[in-house]
Amino acid sequence: MAARTPLPEHVEAHRDRQWCREESRRVGTPGEAERFVERAGFAACLTDARRPGPSLYVAVCGRRDAVLPRNVQHDAEASLAWRLKDEVLRRGQAYYAKLGRGRAMFVAPRLVPAFHALWGVRKADETRLLGGDARAVLRVLRAEWEMATADLREESGVRDGKRFAAAMDALQAAMLVVPSEVLYEPRFTYIWTLAVGRFPALARSRMSREAALREVARAFLDGAGMTVRGELARVAGLSRQDAGLGNRALVADGTAVMLGTGVYALQRMADAGH
Fold first, then answer.
1. 148 phi/psi in degrees, rounded to 5
2. SS3 of 139, please?
3. What is the C-alpha separation between 97 and 171, in angstroms, rounded?
4. DSSP-assigned beta bridge partners for residue 156
5. 3-state class of 174 per DSSP?
6. pLDDT mean over 238-244
7. What sign does the dihedral 126-128-132-133 (CA atoms) show?
8. C-alpha 11 chain-centroid distance
């Protein structure tokens, strides 16, 4: 893993506050997890200090240097982050699915239209953009509304585990399907449902791609204070070109300043650094 570009201490302190990397801001309840996601705009679940961006696990730990242990099953902080993830997706107050580049991510409701503008697949494009397995699963869910994994595999005819997993990843990335609950008894399974049923804003989403890139970049920079080359792309699952377009839009509207190639800072953070 490449070494992270060192950041000024006032930027790290800003991230500590915004991303709950302080003991006093530790996340420990579902409500606190939802507020963390709302503040961050979007966040990973179980990444640690070795990856950039806001993370529920790091927020549960309440420290910027949190690193996942090898045996996460026996780690109290990792277990709490996992339980909070289960509860947050069950409550449906934050979007949770595998999105850009297959990364499991929370998205605040206010940013769901922006993410949909970037990754969502509309019904008219499903035949062109989705494979046959994904369309078969989607047909079943549109008829039944929600279903457990084993039943969905049987009803869709996509019984092979790898093919089914690929279909579900594609449907999540297209913002068509989300997990709505996790059950552990009598055996582990996800309950799947249509994304538009849990987040009706998806049906009304008409944001332009340019506006969506700007708002995703704005949400990240608000929390990060400053972003270095490639960081937004890596965290949000964007291409570097799209990340650059979003960041430059913030410069154009006066929110940010460009400090160097691929380096942007909030205007107030840039002022504080001088």
1. -75, 160
2. helix
3. 10
4. none
5. coil
6. 96
7. negative
8. 22
Question: For residue 225, is it left (φ>0), alpha (ψ between -120 and 50) or beta?
Answer: left
DSSP assigned state of 3: P
The answer, yes or no, to whether the previous bond of 52 is cis (omega within 30 of 0) is: no
What are the tens digits of pLDDT across the range 183-218? 999 899 999 999 999 988 777 778 999 999 999 999
Going by C-beta distance under 8 Å and a sequence separation of 6 or more, which residues neighbour residue 177?
A: 97, 137, 138, 141, 168, 171, 192, 193, 194, 195
Q: Tell me which amino acid residue 183 is.
A: L
pTM (2 decimals)?
0.92
93 contacts 84 by C-beta, under 8 angstroms: no
Q: pLDDT digit string (tens) for 65-123?
A: 999 988 877 899 999 999 999 999 999 999 999 997 888 999 999 999 999 999 999 99
CB 8 within 8 A of CB 16: no
- Where helices occur in the chain by DSSP H, the ranges are 9-18, 30-40, 56-61, 76-91, 112-119, 126-129, 132-144, 149-156, 161-173, 195-198, 201-204, 209-224, 231-236, 240-252, 267-272
* Residue-wise pLDDT tens digits, 154-168: 999 999 999 999 999
